[in-house]
Amino acid sequence: MITLHQLKIFWAVAHSESLTRASKLLGLAQPSLSQQISKLEASIGAQLFDRNRNQLDLTDAGKFLLRKSELILAGVDEAMAGLQEFSEGARGVISVGALNSIARVLLPQAVRLMAKVYPGVELDVHEVSPGEALELLYGRRLTVAIVAADSVASSAVSFHKLDVFSDPYVLAVPKGMDLSKVEDSWADLDDSSRTMLNSCIQFNFGTPHQRRMEEWYHKALPHHRVISQSRTYEVALSLVQEGIGVAVVPALTVRIGKSNTFDVDLYRVNLPKRRIVGLVPSQYVRVEPYATFLAALEQAGRDIELPPIKDIPPFLKAIDPVVATIPDAAS
Fold it and tell me: What does the angle CA 160 – CA 162 – CA 167 come to, to the nearest 5 degrees?
């Protein structure tokens, strides 16, 4: 017989495309995963994967079982979530994955709203990258992943998508740096300001977004040099605050809490807004307390107040917005 444990392992391996990645995702040793997949194949009398070194490609039988396993596992998850409502004193745990810059601003308000209806629900917050959040969703270790839409490919996402909020990209500069009348980023500034504006802090995410941002920097600040690379917006903004250089960041990342912000000035740039979405397995969308949490998440997104943003500087208005476009995952 096929066991539920085997189905969960098969589902995770099928989405991971390699035993190494699935092992990390599930927290199980590779030999154990291989053994369970072999037992599953023996029990059904068909090969589920074509094995090419460490790569695993689904066979026709594997594709069929994947479609069926998604329905079975979704049904089990929905049943377990619904039964929690009948467990005296138990309201369950909602596991949420998000970048720190999103979690610290969005989640407190969402939890406060949800607690009015479900005060006993526990929130398990994972501060992870979008890629890690997606892996944890596939491994059924997260209930909700809150990510930027352009950070995950649409072909890799098979979850319900909830629009939470959008924030503009801004150029963060040291406090007091006036760019409001700068027509030429090289000729219209004194030596000190020119050096500062062309000292750029960029992000080393290793994604198409990073490459598009590099293209934007070359277009907007042709004389710039990268003085630092960062993997978090917090570090980049701390460097800007200390007068080390400038950085293009989503406006929300400048907020430290409900009312506090990094001590920097922000200028609007001609880049499309960053769309923040919640990804959640469809079986949780209409089941409590998850449905209430998702509604609270949407309300928290509507209630967010961005820090003050100044108008786009003249020298940036000439940048071709098509070249600078950062498409979301659906593009």
Answer: 145
